[in-house]
Specification:
This protein is α+β, with helices and mostly antiparallel strands and 129 residues long. It has helices spanning 22-37, 39-58, 116-126; strands at residues 15-16, 59-63, 67-72, 75-81, 85-91, 98-103, 107-111.
Length: 129
């Protein structure tokens, strides 16, 4: 059977969020004065900031028509179908730091290491509850 252009499936809408390094950089910056007061505390905060920076470099969130997909490079590592979502929220809107969503069987907290404005727009477009 020969397929015509009308037989092709509709293109799906995919939104990939740009990384944001505000939280990792703020934590590394905070670690410096903390290290003066308490070396261990400054070290822990600095290492956590570096960890989040590496995550911002390597992880990508892609909103598709049916699910939130998390990728490391080109490999998909998790998928969260919107059909299972019950609620989502971005905490502390003036300076967004945490993204929360609840599924039927679990809850998830993600630090905002991607563009907060793109995240909110993608959630409102793909997963309006």
């Amino acid at each position: 059977m020969v397929s015509s252009p009308t037989d092709t499936p509709l293109a799906s809408s995919v939104t990939e969020l740009a990384p944001s390094y505000r939280i990792p950089l703020a934590l590394v910056g905070l670690a410096i004065p903390l290290a003066v007061v308490n070396l261990w505390l400054g070290g822990v905060v600095g290492l956590f900031g570096l960890f989040l920076g590496i995550q911002a470099l390597t992880l990508r969130l892609r909103f598709t028509d049916t699910a939130l997909d998390i990728y490391r490079g080109e490999k998909q590592i998790r998928q969260f179908p919107y059909a299972d979502w019950e609620h989502w929220e971005i905490f502390w809107p003036p300076v967004p730091i945490l993204f929360y969503f609840r599924e039927v069987k679990s809850i998830h907290f993600l630090p905002i290491i991607f563009s907060p404005s793109q995240l909110k727009a993608a959630l409102e477009t793909h997963c309006s509850l």
